[in-house]
Every structure is written in C-alpha cells, then in structure tokens.
What does this fold into?
Amino acid sequence: LTRLGSVSCRALEALLPAGASAAATRADVSGVPLFPEEEAAVRRAIARRRDEFATGRACARAALESLGLPELAIPTGSAGEPRWPAGVVGSITHCDGYRACAVAREADLAALGIDAEPNRPLPERLLADVAFGDERALVRRLAGAEPDVRWDRVLFSAKEAVYKAWFPRARRRLGFEDVALTIDHRAGTFSAELPPPGLPLADGALQVLSGRWAVDGEVVLTAVAVTR
Ligand SMILES: CC(C)(COP(=O)(O)OP(=O)(O)OC[C@H]1O[C@@H](n2cnc3c(N)ncnc32)[C@H](O)[C@@H]1OP(=O)(O)O)[C@@H](O)C(=O)NCCC(=O)NCCS
It folds into this structure.
C-alpha cells in the first residue's frame, strides 16, 4: 500500500499523550488501495466520500506503522466505528482540508478519540442541539476572551472526540446532552463529565474524560485520551 505524501501532524501530536502516534494530511491521497474488508464501507459511496475514507485509512496505516504494526485492514463496524487490530485503540477524523488518524497500543491508552472541524461558526440551529446547561454561557464568555477561536466549534468538536473515544468501549449511543463540557482556554484543555454510575455505562473509567484542543490554521482540533 502507498505511503502518505505530505504529512502535517505536529499540532495533532501536541494534543496526544506519550504512546499515541498520529498521521495527518491536508489533501486527499490519490490511489490508496483498500483491503476488501474496507471496500464494503464505500462500495456505493460518491468519489468524495471514497477519497476521504481512503485517505483516513492511509493516515491510519502511517500511524500504525509508527507503532511498529504492519499494514492491516481497518474495517468499519456496525455503528460506523473503525475496527482496529487487537490491542490497538484509535480514531479517524476528516473535515474540509484535513484528514487525520491517531492510534495507540491498548496497553498504553484505554481510549482515544480525535476530531477536526473548520474554525468557522457552528450554525445556530446546531448549537441548540449541542450546548446544554452552562455550555452556551461558556461559549459566550470564551468568545469575549478569545474572539479568533470559534468556541461553539471547539465545544462541538470536543463532544465528537469524546464520543469517538467512548463508543468503541461502551458500545452505546451518547447524546450531546449526556456530556457536560468545560473548557480551559488558557491551558488548551477540556473536561467532559459523562453520566454518573447507575446509568447503563459500560465502563467506570470513562466518567470524566480529559482532552486538549488547538487551532491549526483553519482547523479546530480536539483529542481525548484515557491514559492507563
Ligand atoms: C460518528 C461521528 C462522531 C463522526 O464525527 P464527524 O465530525 O461527523 O465526522 P469525522 O470525519 O470527524 O469522523 C468520521 C469518522 O469517525 C469514525 N466513527 C464513526 N462512527 C464512530 C463511532 N460510533 N465510534 C467511534 N468512531 C466512529 C469513523 O472512523 C469515521 O470515519 P470513516 O468512516 O472514514 O472511518 C458523528 O457523525 C456522530 O454520529 N455524532 C453523533 C453522536 C455524537 O457525536 N454524540 C456526541 C455526544 S457527546
């Protein structure tokens, strides 16, 4: 399989703890061969979706290689999640002008989720579906302190990263209203509180998740990692 061309993942790597490996590209990589098990996910997809999927897999193979792992199929699970080789956790993201993957050995990280979004305003309608409790006030306050960052996007992206870290272990849907997010804009971190014990959470380790955010050019990046 082909190697990634130009890789720009310093900003993403800076969000990840030791043990994680990342690969990113700003443009689709052409001609990425897919394994037959991967083809199933994009057999009927339009070219644009196929390209972003294949580039995500190319990023995944590059990131896995940095962990010393061979090129392996990463099929798509029934909920859309990437199915990593045994002993690996990881996450894939794509948005306009950015595709990336981060992986780690399960011995080092219990869960990993990443997300990329354009650093542009979230449609007001979407914000209403995403922000609950104190989160709207938080977004307004941060916009006053640091107007160049689209804090509604950071909030949205952070919740998507939480979901991607959470789902492969919990195997249960999580609503935006189920996660209470706080953001520390000076430290570049965020914290996500998930439903308390008693609700059918599959894993007690995932009740408070910590993450990091950054703006890299036009893109908001978020990452959630659960260390051992
Ligand atoms: C799955 C979801 C999180 C993807 O996020 P997105 O910003 O739309 O798109 P991204 O490009 O960043 O990520 C897509 C990748 O996420 C991964 N993904 C999809 N479903 C997933 C799941 N259930 N668990 C983990 N990863 C998943 C896949 O790798 C996918 O890329 P691929 O199909 O090329 O492999 C989003 O579409 C979704 O369903 N959100 C609703 C649930 C949610 O976010 N709840 C938040 C509660 S806090």
Observations:
- The chain has a mean pLDDT of 91.
- The chain has six helices and eight strands.
- The pocket of coenzyme A is lined by residues 53, 56, 76, 79-82, 92-94, 115, 159-160, 162-164, 167-168, 174-176, 179 (CB under 6 Å).
- The two ends are 32 Å apart (CA to CA).
